[in-house]
Every structure is written in structure tokens, then in C-alpha cells.
Design goal:
Elements (H helix, E strand, L loop, with lengths): L1 H13 L2 E3 L5 E3 L4 H21 L7 H21 L9 E5 L7 E4 L3 E5 H6 L4 H16 L2 H22 L6 H6 L1 H10 L4 H17 L6 H13 L5 H4 L7 H16 L11
Parallel strand pairs: 3-5
Antiparallel strand pairs: 1-2, 4-5
């Protein structure tokens, strides 16, 4: 039984691989479509209590500003990645002055907190870098990838449970399955995924008319904020020491896109 289980799981993993937009191999036990469907429900559930408290889109001018910036980014994202055309993109501004964070679920369901904008005194270019980065997580199917990692963890623990079914550790292994899956979904993105989102995001922002130099100034501000209390943004975004240097190395190429002044259509949000 143990041998058959291992064979089945091995074949399952082999047939569940995909490639990200940058060509990186990804484990995809959960399809992007499944992740998008789950995210639609999660988005509503996440925003509902905040909306009841009057914390969603309650600053008209700020909301308008964020929708303009994000709308330009989405237009460019769809141009580069046509599969995202019918995602039903949304962005909400959450009024929480103490939270420095932003996120984008699968399918383009986004939010940004007033704390990130105000505490960092973020410029339009810097906000574009944040949202471009988050949009890129969705475009690269990182949500589905994280859910797949959680599922793989769950299957692995099930395998351990089967392997030790006659021992005192069996119930411990199996009882930890749901917990492991939950924790895996909430884990920070890998450094590989973060680098991927950095690279994709700075290009989307530059092609949308936002200065790529802001990618560096944004992280400088994040580092400064981190000296007092780590922003929540950093808790889910690993910040290796060479991140600023890597982004800085991309600027010369990105400036060529940025300097091509043109009309920038805004996706209706």
C-alpha cells in the first residue's frame, strides 16, 4: 500500500507542473481558475466586515487617485498578458492608518491600506510600483502556486501517516494535515516568486508611464519604516538585502519604456 501510494503521488506531482509567465516551473495542484474562484469568495468575506465599519473607499479623492493609477497598470497588464482580460479586476482602499500593506488575490482582486500611502508619503510612482508588484503576483499565478504548496504539504503528511499507520505517530501526522495546509497558504511568497513579481511589476509600471526609479525609493522608505515596526507588507514580502540593488539594475532598461510618452488608457474600476 505504501509503495502504491508513493507511485500515485509521484505521478500526480509530475503531471501537475506548469510554467509562470517568466518560464519558471511551478507546482500546480490547484489550477489558476480554481484559485480565482476561491479568491472571489475570499475577497467578499475579507471586505464585508470592513465595509460595515465604514473603512472601505471612504475617502473619495484618494479612491479616485488609486483607481487611476491601478487602472493604467491593469490596462498594460492585460496588454502583456491577455489571459487576464476577463478577470473582473477590482481595487479597494481600506482606511487603516496603522497598516502598511497592499495585496492582490488571484483574478485581480486588490486592496491597498491608507497606512501604506500616508505613512510612507507615497508618490503616484511609488504606489504604481506597489500595485504593479501585487498585480504581478496574480499574473504569475502565485496564489494558485501557494495553494498547491499547501496541498502538497497536506498530501505529504498523509503519506507519513500511511507510512507509520501502525505507530503512535500516525494520528499526530494525520491530525496536522489541515493545520499544515492552512499555514502553507499564509506563508510569505518565496524569494523566487518575489523576484519574479519585482521584475514583472517594474516593467508593467514603466510601460504605464510610472518612473522606475520609484521602485528603489519605495523600498528605501520601507526599510526606514521597518526600523521602528516591521510593516505588514514586509511580513508577506521577503526583503533580501540585494533587493534594491536588483531593482536598480533593471532601471536603465525600464527607463526606455518610461520615456516612451504616450496615452495611457485607464481600465474602468
Amino acid at each position: 500500500m505504501k509503495r502504491n501510494f508513493i507511485i500515485i503521488i509521484t505521478l500526480f506531482f509530475i503531471t501537475s507542473c506548469a510554467s509562470s509567465p517568466t518560464g519558471r516551473n511551478q507546482l500546480m495542484l490547484v489550477s489558476p481558475e480554481q484559485a480565482i474562484s476561491s479568491s472571489k469568495t475570499a475577497y467578499v468575506e475579507t471586505l464585508k466586515p470592513l465595509d460595515v465599519e465604514g473603512k472601505v473607499d471612504n475617502h473619495p479623492e484618494l479612491t479616485k487617485r488609486i483607481k487611476l493609477i491601478t487602472g493604467r497598470l491593469i490596462t498594460q497588464a492585460i496588454k502583456q498578458y491577455p489571459f487576464a482580460k476577463n478577470w473582473g479586476w477590482q481595487v479597494k482602499v481600506i482606511d487603516d492608518p496603522k497598516t502598511i500593506n497592499a495585496w492582490c488575490m488571484a483574478g485581480g482582486k486588490m486592496a491597498i491600506y491608507t497606512g501604506l500611502i500616508n505613512e510612507l508619503n507615497a508618490t503616484n510612482d511609488e504606489i504604481a510600483q506597489v500595485m504593479g508588484h501585487e498585480i504581478s503576483h496574480a499574473l504569475a499565478h502565485h496564489t494558485a502556486e501557494q495553494m498547491s504548496i499547501a496541498m502538497a504539504t497536506q498530501v505529504g503528511i498523509m503519506g507519513i501517516g500511511l507510512a507509520v499507520k501502525d505507530s503512535k505517530y500516525s494520528s499526530m501526522a494525520l491530525s496536522g494535515t489541515a493545520l499544515a495546509a492552512s499555514l502553507a497558504i499564509k506563508l510569505p511568497n518565496s524569494r523566487t516568486a518575489e523576484s519574479e513579481a519585482d521584475r514583472m511589476g517594474i516593467e508593467i509600471a514603466a510601460k504605464s508611464g510610472y518612473n522606475p526609479n520609484a521602485a528603489v525609493t519605495l523600498w528605501q522608505k520601507m526599510d526606514k519604516a521597518n526600523k521602528d515596526k516591521p510593516p505588514e507588507f514586509l511580513s508577506t514580502h521577503p526583503n533580501p538585502e540585494n533587493r534594491q540593488a536588483t531593482l536598480k539594475s533593471l532601471i536603465p532598461k525600464m527607463m526606455k519604456y518610461y520615456q516612451q510618452k504616450k496615452e495611457y488608457p485607464v481600465y474602468p474600476l
